[in-house]
Amino acid sequence: PEAITVQELANRMAARGGEVVKALFRMGVMATLTQTIDADTAELVVNEFGHRVRRVSESDVEQGLEGTVDTDEELLPRPPVVTIMGHVDHGKTSLLDALRKTDMAGREAGGITQHIGAYQVQVAGGHKVTFIDTPGHAAFTAMRARGASVTDMVILVVAADDGVMPQTVEAIHHAKAANVPLIVAVNKIDKPGVNLDRVRQELLQHEIVVESLGGDTMEIQVSATKAMNLDKLLEAILLQAEVLDLKANPNRAAEGTVIESKLDKGRGPVATVLVQRGTLKQGDLVVAGAEWGRVRAMLDDKGRQMKDADPSLPVEILGLSGVPSAGETFVAVENEGRAREISEFRQRRLRDKQAAAAGAARGTLADMMA
Ligand code: GTP
Ligand code: MG
């Protein structure tokens, strides 16, 4: 059950703190403004003041996010969301750039692209793949720490001439912890004298057994700079996606995760979000982290204005009250009251956490002085 300070309760009823203290006193509860009372006591006070109680607990809010369960008929196939990881200089960015050039839709649009943290590529056969370009593993860790699960699979880039390196191992651990399948992209195979067997053996030491060694991890040999075997890599991604049977209900209020965000001088708070359920529409009211607002404009990774965004599509949204953090969830809500309620709840939770952390820090300091 939720607890609340007397002052906070007074604020929420727009009552004077002293009046609440008096009401408590009449009920036989001695409490000062800064003291915490339990939810039941608070409810009695609220009734005393002639208000109706509407408790917003964490589970209420989270239920709002999780919402109703979608039925099988409502679930439709969605594109896979793929994160590319690997050691420094093994060619992650080059590979993403190369894959992006295979985008059929992008080519039609003239190929003028802007950098956002995630983008969707349309590949042959009408299939789509969403790539997330996490700036280093720290962002991935931060997102996971917030409980955000955005990726369906990991592409592990290993440079053939360098083999398995510390950050390769880190990426393997990330994929395992996130419990998502991993596809190995052995890159730079255009370089002379590369030893593929050595790479496979090194991967084996970290329990990644590629198909050629009898395991079930797909291994694709590519060259990002020479654009070799990119089609094979995309094929492997689509094959893996098929196995995962990825689905979402597009016909509901949108939900998803903030991938990155910034405060833009001209445009105000800008958040790149990944829609994971439902369809996000321009004009929707959304709560993202503890921020909220109406989606004033929505842009895809090619800078095109979007009217709506369906599952697995990453978009930049404008119109939020502030800048949410990466890894926080967003949800479209029906009205401003609900938006404020969720936003205030999250702000309160954030303050509580900060206060708890500060308290813990003080405790440690006190321990050290003792
Ligand atoms: P960080 O972002 O710093 O971790 O590096 P990265 O993994 O993104 O590597 P990046 O794409 O920046 O490539 C590093 C270097 O490797 C660059 O000089 C690329 O030109 C080169 N490179 C990438 N892919 C290939 C390839 O397939 N063949 C060859 N020969 N060079 C490549
Ligand atoms: Mg890079």
Concise account of the structure shown:
The protein is α+β, with helices and mostly antiparallel strands. 36% of the residues lie in helices and 25% in strands. The longest helix is centred in the C-terminal third of the chain and has 34 residues, at 336-369.
Note the main attributes of this structure.
370 residues, alpha+beta, 6-stranded mixed β-sheet, 18 strands, 36% helix, binds guanosine-5'-triphosphate, binds magnesium ion
Summarize the SSE layout with pairings.
Blueprint: E1 3-5, H1 6-13, H2 17-26, E2 36-38, H3 39-48, H4 58-66, E3 76-77, E4 81-86, H5 92-101, H6 104-108, E5 118-122, E6 128-132, H7 137-145, E7 153-159, H8 166-178, E8 182-187, H9 196-204, E9 219-221, H10 230-244, E10 247-248, E11 255-264, E12 268-277, E13 280-281, E14 285-288, E15 291-299, E16 308-309, E17 314-320, E18 329-333, H11 336-369
Parallel strand pairs: 4-6, 4-7, 7-8, 8-9
Antiparallel strand pairs: 1-2, 3-10, 5-6, 11-12, 11-18, 12-17, 13-16, 14-15, 14-18, 15-17
Helix pairs in contact: 1-2, 7-8
The protein binds guanosine-5'-triphosphate and magnesium ion (MG).
Binding site for GTP: 86-93, 133-137, 187-190
Organism: Teichococcus oryzae
Family: Belongs to the TRAFAC class translation factor GTPase superfamily. Classic translation factor GTPase family. IF-2 subfamily.
